[in-house]
């Protein structure tokens, strides 16, 4: 079963990414996602998160090259 997931997992991820790439931009969905942050009961931020976001972008970029 583990081997089956190892083989199937990457293919499912490829299908998911392709489906998202072909999705039309929907302002309402974007607004809804941004509002989720307002609902979260989190402590105040001490940074802008820019450095962390750059790390995420770099990891995604390197992952796309594979």
Largest sheet, in brief, is: none
Q: What portion of residues is helical?
A: over 70%
Strands, count = 0
Q: Give the helices and strands as they follow along the chain.
A: HHH
C-alpha end-to-end distance? 25 Å
Please state roughly what percent of the residues sit in beta strands, choosing from under 5%, 5-15%, 15-25%, 25-35%, 35-45% or over 45%: under 5%
**What class, by secondary structure content?**
mainly alpha
Rg for CA atoms: 17 Å
Morphology call: extended
Q: What ranges have pLDDT less than 50 throughout 5 or more consecutive residues?
A: none
Number of helices: 3
Overall mean pLDDT: 90
Plain-language structure description:
Helices cover 74% and strands 0% of the residues. The protein has three helices and no strands. It is extended. It has a domain at 1-40. The mean pLDDT is 90. The protein has helices at residues 2-21, 27-39, 50-65. It is mostly helical and 66 residues long.
